[in-house]
């Protein structure tokens, strides 16, 4: 399940305090946007 195209963004989200499980439950598009923003803000 962690084999997402943006799985690399999960670690960052977890560091922020967001459960990757909750992100995965969300639509992939939404997750990609969230992880993408976090990665860019990196």
TrEMBL record:
Q: Which superkingdom heads the taxonomic lineage of this protein's source?
A: Bacteria
Protein name, entry field: Uncharacterized protein
Task: Report the source organism.
Answer: Aneurinibacillus migulanus (Bacillus migulanus)
């Amino acid at each position: 399940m962690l084999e997402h195209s943006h799985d690399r963004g999960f670690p960052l989200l977890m560091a922020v305090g967001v459960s990757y499980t909750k992100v995965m439950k969300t639509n992939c598009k939404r997750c990609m946007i969230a992880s993408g923003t976090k990665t860019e803000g990196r």
